[in-house]
Design goal:
Structural class: alpha+beta
Strand order of the largest sheet: 1-2-3-4-5-6
Mean pLDDT: 80
Low-confidence stretches: 130-138
Number of helices: 4
Distance between the termini: 53 Å
Number of strands: 10
Number of domains: 2
Length: 255
Amino acid sequence: MAVTSYATFNGNIVYENRAGVERDYMRDSLGSTTALLDSSQAQTDTFFYWPYGEIRTQTGSTKTPFTFVGTLGYYMDIASSLFYVRARHLRSVLARWLTVDPMWSAGAAYGYVGNNPTCLADPSGLQPGGPGGPGDGSNQAHCKELWKDCDKKVDSWLHLAILLITAVGTGACLGAVFLLAGLVATIPIIGPGLAVLILLFGIAACLIESFLVLEIILAICGFVKLFWCCMDIYLPCMKIPPAQIKRCPSIWCGF
């Protein structure tokens, strides 16, 4: 009986030896096998998929069971057309697991990766994520603490920016208003009355300007939290592949 052996690197299948025939696995950012290469690095097989894992087109004749998210361990049972994913079996044609999510009712009982199969994978069969990340929860608490620390730092910068804007921006604006009002007040007859109007409208304009600037600062800090705290600190800590982070930031960071 022919024996097939596999080699892994950092939890990903990278190589197989099928009865002496060697193949290297090429993958996409999700973990799906896109091509197989022979020992001379010539491409022997290619794979293209529908969103939930059915093979759309295939070239070559290698009978590998590791196709859709295959490098992360999704095993395709050719006889049943089911993917074995450690804790459960996935029927890709229905986009559903065959058994209830052990974490239900936190999510859909049979739903697969929150209906986001082009962005998320579930190597453990328990929770969407990646190897060493949300899929096994091994370092989730630590990574969330890093995110919280980053969030606090951004908030402290926000408070500092508000103080600077209030002290410098508003102070400069009011100073200019009082200077202009003082100059106008020297005009005979209409000067004093016009100076009062300038003071009233000037102070109101300075307050509005400060409010608008603060809103801009708040928006900027919000984006900093999302792109820095989430995408540059939290997700790399969770070991989500960088290409996958850039591909679907709205899924991971919630914006």
